[in-house]
Amino acid sequence: MQRVGMPPLKAVPAAGTLPWRITDGELQVALVHRPRYDDWSWAKGKLDPGEEWAAAAARETFEETALRVRLGRPLPEAAYQIFDRDGSFATKQVRYWAAVVTGGTGRLANEIDEVVWLSPNDAHKRLDYSRDQDQLLALVGMHRRSELATWPLIIVRHAIALPRSRWSRQDWLRPLDPRGQARAGALAPLLAAYGPMSLISSSSTRCQQTLAPYGRASRTALSLKASLSEESFEKKPQKAIRVIEKAFDKAEPVAICTHRPLLPAILRDLAERPADPEVKQLLEQAAEHGMEKGEIIVCHVAGAGPDARIVAAESHLP
User: Fold this and answer.
1) 10-23 and 39-41 beta bridge pairing
2) Burial class (CB in 10 A: 0-12, 13-18, 19+), 237
3) Does residue 235 form part of some domain?
């Protein structure tokens, strides 16, 4: 007898956060209440068409809590079955991040009527769905290991530029093509989710233009480094590594944009620093196989200077 299988359920992508803070020396997390369902859960929502997961997590958190957040470490994902808005059966896939509040009014204006900050034990009791406990337990474990408070070091490969064959001037002046400009625009909300406070770019035009949309939106000036250019790297490669060392010393959210020839040395330097084994593997593979144009790798760093530890890393492809 032939068995006819059920068609695969469509996937509904969603993203959210667990905002956390330390109050009087104690960890607290933020839960939201939805009056429509009378339930307590994490701030989350569906991705808009073409939206990046991380950008959606930050946007949905703001829309539901009126709090602006900076994403930290990724947390366990959740998948469960729902009836979608069109009445069809679907699987909702939710990606979560730990997050810290960076601003916002806190005045609710959407489908949430209450936001509360609770201790992990009280949050565990308040949550209505067992699936939401996985993220909480992971966050608490990170806190106990002193790996929850992190800052992002973001490595960016510039987006697609005009081909060398179509450019007659000096190569460092070669700009992005229309596809590269579109990717640079798409990077702005993605970078905003991680909130880099400084932008460091190769002095080449194509790198500057890759970070420019986020720089304009966030009013963050670009710091140009000739040492991150291809021309300088050929002569003095160690100067590019010094840029990374200074970023670790400063220990503040930063995005660094450079070129393919520099990336293996930078990524191997990061992989040689204290890091989680999975992080090392991601960085070593990226160093070996290369990053795509317009790709970013977010390293979540705990601590500062030579003792800093890369506790998680994410790759975001175009």
Assistant:
1) unpaired
2) middle
3) yes
| Per-chain mean pLDDT for the chain | 93
112 & 211 share domain: no
- pTM, to two decimals: 0.93
- In whole angstroms, give the CA distance from residue 284 to residue 265: 10
Other CB atoms within 10 A of residue 95 CB: 20
Burial 9-32 (b: 16+ CB within 10 A, else e): eeebebbbbbbbeeeeeebbbbbb
Alpha-carbon distance of 138 to 151, in angstroms, equals 18
Counting every residue written for the chain, the total comes to 318
The answer for residues whose C-beta is within 8 angstroms of residue 268's C-beta and 6 or more apart is 283, 284, 287
**pLDDT tier for residue 311 given thresholds of 50, 70 and 90:** very high
Domain coverage including residue 248: 151-316
CA 78 – CA 91 distance, rounded (Å): 10
| pLDDT given for residue 8 in this prediction | 57
Q: Note whether 110 and 239 are same-domain residues.
A: no
Element (H, E) at 205: helix 205-218
